[in-house]
């Protein structure tokens, strides 16, 4: 924000809810008064044309009625107003007004008033051109080096330059490679038109080249263009600026040297006549409009640049000389000379705020009032401080949005898994082919220290495990109350689970209405999915886990799987999974090693995990802190990749079945429509075996659905096996490389992101 504000010399607000843009403002001695005093010409999109002659008695005065010389409503929106020598036979200035489909040139004149009401001004239409194309903007100048008159060039929305030699239409030319119209300016020194194309490059076209190029009216098709006698329109020079331009201005303050100024969205360029960059300035704001206005020092040019932060910056080449605050965002800025003041800055905003201002500062006449000195009462201040601290403490104490620590949590949930299997199995609808599927009881207790509204409990275990009931809803819990539920977990699908864990989650609302969640995890026993069996000597897959302690008897670490009568001699243990596969665990009598072996890679996971977990628990009870397990064998990657390939193949099959089902369903509906048409017909036609075709298609749909269902079941089993094998590979890598807990968590997050297998994930 600027320290200094633009000093308001004269300002007004134009109309009600009118809109203005870049070309709607012009300053010139439009009535040819000869005094050198500029008038302010403003046109609006509502079609109002206004001409002002500001002359306040003192700066900042209200607008006087005589300041408005002329206000007239034209029938069409005004896109641009310009003042120049547009009428033949006279070098007087005339006003050109550009509408969407029309160009009008007016003469503005004043009549001396006979009474005190002042002079009367009126406009007279000198000529007009109806345009064949919708106009965008225009520029004017002595095209071709003519003396004493100005010609007009209008750019249409579809890229055609239409040139008018005052009262007559000269010719039209299309710009090559045109997409959207950009700003347009004329350089009298090089007699060329300069614009910025949609390719974000400044392009210059010579007037002579435009005049001799192919006429726009002849450009009907490619063949005619080839056969026509005119030349192809060639660009004089091109400069890539890499951004869209807001405006172009060509100025020549020193004799023999002219500069092309281009205001981009983020940069400000000054170019030589031949398109070379003289200098550029990177802007750290979003500009809205600009004007180069004079050359104060030899070889430099001063420029005003306004931006969307309501700041008007004054630059000498690239050096910022002054910055001033404006009351609104200008879309157009000009510099004018009035009778009382030279170099007035005229700005126009898009909602019609027209202001004439000057730069400078006014001295501040404000004086700070004297502060009444009063003695400080320290006792009152201390009492007030204590009161405020008490309020702050209460506010921070009752802020429910902050997360609570575990000790302060209002509701806690605990899960207790029974050490023994249920005497009478609670398994329901199990697909396991084994004789009796065991279940284990889980007792979940919810304790509340606060009032818990609408508490609900959700129990989740990963398939193929299942629970007898997974959702519970309770009445509101009072403080210091508890609820207990009992449920059973069992193996439902006919495959080994990759994880023997579950989660309990309680969601509730506290009295202030804020939702809360409390959860806990529980582990399930290995004997839920397997039972003791005779060890097997032969196996396809074997793993050896090394430890740094002598081997422990299986009676000690696997009391639930070993018959106590075997004593300490039990160094082999067999696990028979409910799905039918077997895994054997062997302890070396001479070395500190354990071997796990099975016919299937995925069956090694649960036993290996259980072995390491029970060994760690055993040595922790004995206060042995340096116990460690390692793995030095080769990781079974080949077998692991086979499981990945198998799972991928089943996923491809699922997609194939889905496509085939979709095709057959479309075919089935098409045959149904044909049959329905035949049956509705008043004169029945023969079915032509459509009923046979319908029955055959129906059988195919049923067969494909059965195959897709079977593939889905196979894919679920393959996913469970792949997940178990992934767990195993990650564990072997962590034992091999001695990874920390955090590193292991990163590995698991990378390789085990899926909780369940779906086509969408």
UniProtKB/TrEMBL annotation:
Residues 1-363 form the PTHB1 N-terminal domain. Keywords: Coiled coil. Residues 634-737 form the PTHB1 hairpin domain. Residues 371-398 form a coiled coil. Residues 436-522 form the PTHB1 GAE domain. Residues 525-632 form the PTHB1 platform domain. GO terms for biological process: cilium assembly. InterPro entries: PHTB1_GAE_dom (IPR028074), PHTB1_N_dom (IPR028073), PTHB1 (IPR026511), PTHB1_hp_dom (IPR055363), PTHB1_pf_dom (IPR055362). GO terms for cellular component: BBSome; membrane. The keyword Calcium does not apply. This is PTHB1 protein. It comes from Chloropsis hardwickii.
């Amino acid at each position: 924000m600027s320290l200094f504000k633009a000093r308001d010399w004269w300002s007004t607000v134009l109309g009600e809810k009118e809109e203005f843009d870049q070309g709607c403002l012009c300053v010139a001695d439009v009535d040819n008064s000869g005094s050198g005093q500029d008038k302010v010409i403003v046109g609006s999109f509502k079609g109002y044309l206004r001409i002002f002659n500001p002359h306040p008695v003192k700066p900042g005065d209200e607008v006087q009625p005589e300041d408005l010389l002329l206000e007239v409503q034209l029938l069409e929106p005004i896109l641009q107003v310009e003042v120049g020598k547009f009428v033949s036979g006279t070098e007087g200035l005339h006003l050109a007004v550009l509408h969407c489909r029309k160009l009008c040139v007016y003469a503005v004149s004043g009549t001396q008033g006979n009474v005190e009401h002042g002079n009367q001004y009126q406009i007279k239409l000198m000529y007009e051109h109806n345009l064949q194309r919708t106009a965008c903007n225009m520029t004017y100048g002595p095209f071709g080096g003519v003396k004493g008159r100005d010609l007009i060039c209008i750019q249409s929305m579809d890229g055609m330059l239409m040139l008018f030699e005052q009262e007559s239409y000269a010719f039209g030319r299309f710009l090559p490679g045109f997409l959207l119209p950009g700003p347009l300016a004329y350089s009298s020194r090089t007699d060329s038109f300069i614009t910025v194309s949609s390719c974000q490059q400044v392009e210059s076209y010579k007037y002579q080249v435009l005049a001799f190029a192919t006429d726009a009216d002849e450009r009907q098709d490619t063949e005619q263009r080839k056969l026509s006698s005119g030349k192809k329109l060639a660009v004089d020079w091109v400069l890539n600026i890499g951004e869209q331009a807001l405006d172009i201005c060509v100025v020549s303050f020193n004799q023999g040297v002219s500069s092309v100024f281009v205001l981009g969205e983020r940069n400000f360029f000054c170019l030589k006549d031949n398109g070379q960059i003289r200098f550029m300035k990177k802007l750290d704001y979003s500009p809205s409009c600009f004007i180069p206005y004079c050359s104060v020092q030899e070889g430099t040019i001063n420029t005003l640049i306004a931006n969307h932060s309501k700041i008007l910056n004054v630059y000498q080449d690239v050096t910022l000389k002054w910055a001033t605050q404006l009351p609104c965002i200008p879309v157009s800025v000009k510099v004018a000379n009035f009778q009382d003041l030279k170099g007035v800055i005229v700005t126009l905003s898009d909602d019609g705020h027209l202001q004439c201002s000057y730069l400078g500062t006014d001295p501040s006449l404000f004086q700070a009032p004297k502060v009444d000195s009063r003695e400080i009462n320290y006792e009152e201040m201390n009492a007030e401080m204590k009161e405020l601290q008490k309020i702050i403490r209460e506010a921070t104490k009752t802020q429910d949005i902050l997360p609570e620590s575990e000790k302060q949590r209002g509701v806690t949930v605990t899960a207790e898994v029974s050490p023994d299997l249920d005497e009478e199995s609670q398994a329901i609808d199990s697909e396991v082919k084994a004789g009796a599927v065991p279940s284990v009881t889980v007792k979940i207790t919810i304790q509340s220290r606060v009032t818990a509204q609408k508490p609900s409990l959700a129990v989740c275990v990963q398939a193929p495990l299942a629970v007898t009931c997974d959702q519970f809803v309770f009445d509101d819990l009072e403080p210091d109350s508890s609820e207990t539920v009992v449920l059973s977990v069992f193996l439902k699908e006919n495959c080994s689970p990759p994880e023997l864990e579950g989660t309990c989650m309680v969601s509730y609302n506290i009295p202030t209405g804020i939702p809360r969640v409390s959860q806990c995890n529980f582990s399930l026993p290995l004997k839920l999915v397997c039972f003791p069996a005779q060890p097997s000597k032969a196996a396809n897959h074997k793993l050896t886990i090394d430890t740094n302690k002598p081997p422990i008897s299986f009676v000690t670490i696997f009391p639930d799987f070993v018959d106590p009568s075997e004593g300490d001699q039990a160094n082999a243990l067999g696990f028979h999974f409910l799905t039918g596969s077997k895994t054997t665990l062997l302890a070396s009598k001479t070395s500190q090693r354990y071997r796990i072996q099975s016919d299937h890679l995925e069956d090694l996971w649960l036993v290996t995990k259980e072995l390491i977990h029970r060994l760690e628990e055993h040595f922790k009870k004995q206060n042995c802190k340096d116990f460690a397990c390692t793995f030095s064998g080769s990781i079974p990657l080949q077998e692991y990749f086979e499981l990945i390939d198998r799972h991928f193949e089943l996923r491809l099959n699922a997609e194939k079945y889905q496509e085939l089902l979709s095709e057959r369903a479309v075919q089935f509906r098409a045959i149904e429509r044909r049959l329905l048409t035949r049956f509705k017909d008043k004169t029945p036609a023969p079915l032509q075996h459509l009923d046979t075709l319908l029955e055959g298609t129906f059988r195919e749909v049923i067969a494909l659905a059965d195959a897709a269902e079977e593939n889905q079941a196979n894919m679920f089993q393959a996913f469970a096996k792949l997940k178990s094998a992934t767990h195993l590979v990650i564990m072997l890598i962590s034992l091999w490389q001695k990874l920390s807990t955090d590193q292991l968590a990163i590995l698991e997050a990378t390789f085990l992101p899926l909780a369940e297998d779906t086509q969408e994930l």
